[in-house]
Specification:
Elements lengths: L4 H14 L15 H13 L3 E3 L12 E3 L1 H10 L2 H14 L4 H19 L2
Antiparallel strand pairs: 1-2
């Protein structure tokens, strides 16, 4: 199965939108199968962006999940539709980019945007 960065982004946004991780429900994202979502959840756990609750040692549907500090950092970088669209276009033109490059480009864009607003 190929990694889908759009799905990674959507999972992070969905996790944040839930607000509470105590009563985690299954993640269902339209246009993606449960197998695709589960695979990407496992990738996010492996990358250290989300963590399974202390009550569950392995990732399984129904277990509470939460974003890690790094997950929140990544989410802040991918949140902007404009930045995300620009980096996705760059990735498409290049025939795909490593996720670390995508993340670095997003962070750099956010820093430039923030710098415009500083006195």
């Amino acid at each position: 199965m190929q990694r889908d960065t759009d799905l990674v982004r959507q999972i992070l946004l969905d996790l944040e939108a839930r607000g509470s991780y105590a009563d985690w429900l299954d993640i269902d994202i339209e246009a993606y199968s449960p197998e695709q979502v589960d695979y990407h959840l496992e990738l996010l756990v492996e990358a250290g962006f989300i963590r399974v609750s202390a009550t569950g040692r392995e990732l399984a549907r129904g277990h509470p999940l939460r974003l890690t500090w790094e997950g929140h950092e990544l989410l802040d970088a991918v949140r902007s539709e404009d930045r995300w669209g620009a980096v996705r276009a760059l990735s498409d033109r290049a025939g795909g980019l490593p996720f670390a490059t995508i993340r670095a480009a997003l962070v750099e864009m956010a820093q430039r945007e923030a710098g415009k607003d500083l006195p």
